[in-house]
Every structure is written in structure tokens, then in C-alpha cells.
Amino acid sequence: MAVFGNNRDEKKLPCIVYGLLADVRGRPVSVDVYRGNTGDPSTVPDQLDKLRNRFGLSRVVLVGDRGMLTETQIDTLREYPSLGWVSALRSEAGLDGIYVLRTSESRKHLSKEDTVRAYKSLSQVEQAFRCLKGIDLRVRPIRHRTVDHVRAHVFLCTLAYYVEWHMRKELAPILFEDEELDDARATRDPVAKAEPSASVKKKKAARMTPGGWPVQSFQTLIKNLGTRCRNRCRAGNNDALVTFYELTESTPLQAHIFELLGLHP
Fold first, then answer.
1. Chain mean pLDDT for the chain
2. CB within 8 A of 239, min separation 6: which ones?
3. pTM for the full model?
4. 150-168 pLDDT, tens digit each
């Protein structure tokens, strides 16, 4: 699958292409892997078949950037009345610095404000790619050779991001995360500059939660959880050795983290 293609890092190396399908909140739904010389727009028909056949969805509005939902792909989407789309016009000289959005949906079904919000939600998919490629999961390098193993590797990394996505939502009270962001995205002016909430400003300034817990990054939180151990113990003499396992005690912060996640190890 690794062949020379449009490498985003601009390095002259064989690469693969993987496409992520996410819901409106940026939660990963599925992932596909393609040969490295596959253009982004050509992956769209596969997603159409998946949405209609495997997921059985009767009504979907796809949001894609202007490099993904090209005019050719939009013509394909028009053949499916149950599939709508939101995208942007490609850049021309008269549009420098301006985004012109377009959609198949009428104002009755999707207001102009929600059209902008939908397009800007692509930033959450971009966050998923940043996490997969460099921040947390580091999908690269891929040291597999067979197609099945490469696809399994990418799938497991996406599955790990799915878990992380849910963890970040549940652990938002003790992370440097804006707990009001999801609601704000649905109500604030979609064109005006986004401003953090007063609560997250206060949390970041104090570096403490209202409950008195130190605010964490996701990386420091995982590192903290990593100090919890499961020890293999052996007791007795050579004639009668007993093997058992014992968990170390949780620190107060670890116990609080497990409580937020609804876990009771």
C-alpha cells in the first residue's frame, strides 16, 4: 500500500492514505486505509456506500473541505437525494482571504449560521489527525508489510483515539479544557472570533479546579495514572509457593480520576 503520493509532510517517502469519518462532535466513526497515490476526493464514494449500506443511515449531511468535496464529488452526491453536503468554493484571485460556503440544504433545514458552524466543525477532525500523527498516539512509523496488518494498525490507533475522545469529555473538569465549549459552538456567533469561557480562564489562571484538584494536561494525567501498578507476588517456601496479584493503592487524585470516568478498579 505504501507508494509515492501526496505526502502532507512533503518528504519524498512512500506513504499511505487513511480517511477518517467522524460525527458532528468530532467523535471517530470509522477509518479506511488506501494506497499512497489515492487522491482525497476519490475516497468519498466509499464513504457513501458505507453510510447507506453498512450504517443504514437514511439521512446524512456530509461536511468536507474544498479539497475533499470537489465539483465532481458533489455531482455524485446529487444522485442520492438522502445525502446532503456542505463545502466551500475553491480559492480564486477574487476570494483571497474569504471563505464562500455552499450547501445542498435549504434554509428550512439548515440555517446559514449552522452551515458555517458545520464547516468549522472540521477543525475537530483535524484535531483527531494531529493526535493520531504526533501528539499522543503516533501512528507512525508503521513497520508492517501486509495490507491486513497495516489496516489493523491504523484501526487500533483510531480505536485508541476513540477512547481518548471519551476520556477527555469525562475528565474535562480537571483538564485544561473548556467545559462550556460544546454548548458554545452550537450557540455563539459562528463568524466572530471564538473566545474562551470565563470558567476556563479562571481554571487556567488558578491551575486548580473549584474542588481543589490540580488542573492537568491529558499527557500529565496519563503519566500520573501510569504509576498505578499490578504486582505479581509470591509467598511461602519452596514446597508451597503461592502466587497472587495485588494492585497498589490509588492516590487521592487517581481515585478522583477513576470516579470521573465511572471506573472502580
1. 89
2. none
3. 0.86
4. 999 999 999 999 999 999 9
